[in-house]
Design brief:
The N and C termini lie far apart (68 Å). The longest helix is centred in the last third of the chain and has 22 residues, at 207-228. The protein contains 13 helices and 8 strands. By secondary structure, it is α/β, with parallel strands linked by helices. It folds into 2 domains: 6-172, Rossmann fold, CATH 3.40.50; 185-292, N-(1-d-carboxylethyl)-l-norvaline Dehydrogenase, domain 2. The protein has helices at residues 18-29, 46-52, 60-64, 79-88, 132-138, 150-162, 175-185, 187-200, 207-228, 237-240, 243-256, 258-278, 283-292; strands at residues 11-14, 34-38, 56-57, 69-72, 97-100, 119-125, 143-148, 166-169. Strands 3-2-1-4-5-6-7-8 form an 8-stranded mixed beta sheet, with helices on both faces.
């Protein structure tokens, strides 16, 4: 059996949000013919029509049946429902590859398409997309988590390669844990920076000014983690076992708010474990920090 030229597979995009629109435009430029894009509103991104010269519709089955590879890029909660609706209207056929881009949902959400002889997989970009242009810029070169049926995974690997990306395989049961870690690294980083810049407002800086002041520190910390590993990159009072400085932090945070103080204590307790792993503090120092930061 000869090699299949996946680059000539016809694709359809069901759900023209940030990721769906970016995939359509990027893969279209890579030579993937696009049978159509399914939108949820009457006003799709004009680039979909102008650059791809393809069908834009609100009826998925019209374009999915013509495609070799179907992307279901709806909101996570709708993936299974939309897949079943397309099945009910005869929109899938044997030999198709059906993919979704959810981080938390497994490929089984596409399971209804298997009944028509399709193979399914999830292809999640480990990246944050605030809007379509950011998605178009950041998708290439990203890492993708792949999970699902073997035939679909082969196509997914080729697509990632065409996007100049990197991939790793995980099991469906591990998707929630995988996604939790991604949320911590991305979403909760945003929340932590919102927390930190908010504290700087207490002595007169705007959030924008505070972010500008903290950005070199953030970038330096990321560089340290990249060069030294997360454990060895840890610095600061907890890494030194300086419980007196931590006590001063907690004292001033009491005037800011209990929620802020509790968040600091939770992070301090976890950071104490990192410092122990690094070996920069001993068990006695760790015990003092734990006692200091325990919940009242």
């Amino acid at each position: 059996m000869g090699m299949i030229d996946f680059s000539k597979q016809i694709i359809a995009i069901v759900g023209a949000g940030k990721v769906g629109t970016a995939l359509a435009l990027l893969l279209g430029k890579k030579g993937y013919p696009v049978s159509g894009v399914v939108v949820g509103s009457k006003h799709p991104d004009e680039r979909l029509v102008k650059e791809l010269q393809t069908v834009v519709t609100r009826c998925p089955e019209e374009v999915t049946i013509k495609a070799d590879v179907v992307f279901i890029t709806t909101p996570d909660r709708l993936i299974a429902t939309v897949t079943k609706e397309i099945c009910a209207k005869g929109g899938f056929r044997a030999g198709q590859i059906v993919l979704h881009a959810s981080g938390s949902q497994s490929a089984d959400d596409l399971g209804a398409a298997r009944e028509f002889g399709a193979s399914v997989a999830s292809i999640h970009p480990l990246q944050s997309f605030a809007h379509v242009d950011v998605a178009i810029e950041h998708l290439p070169g990203s890492y993708f988590a792949l999970e699902g049926d073997e035939p679909a995974l082969k196509v997914a690997e080729q697509i990632v390669g065409d996007l100049n990306g990197f991939w790793f395989a995980i099991a469906g049961k591990d998707k929630p844990l995988y996604h939790a870690a991604a949320c911590i690294a991305s979403n909760y980083l945003v929340s932590l920076m919102h927390f930190a810049t908010g504290l700087y407002q207490h002595f007169g800086l705007s959030r924008k000014e505070a972010f500008g002041a903290l950005l070199p520190l953030i970038q330096g910390t990321i560089n340290n983690m990249q060069q030294l590993t997360t454990t060895n990159a840890l610095t600061g009072p907890i890494a030194r076992g300086d419980d007196q400085t931590v006590a001063r932090h907690l004292a001033v945070l009491a005037d800011v708010g209990e929620q802020e103080r509790e968040l600091y204590r939770v992070m301090a307790r976890y950071t104490t474990l990192v410092a122990l792993e690094k070996g920069s503090i001993n068990q006695e120092q760790a015990a003092k920090l734990e006692e200091l930061c325990k919940v009242d």
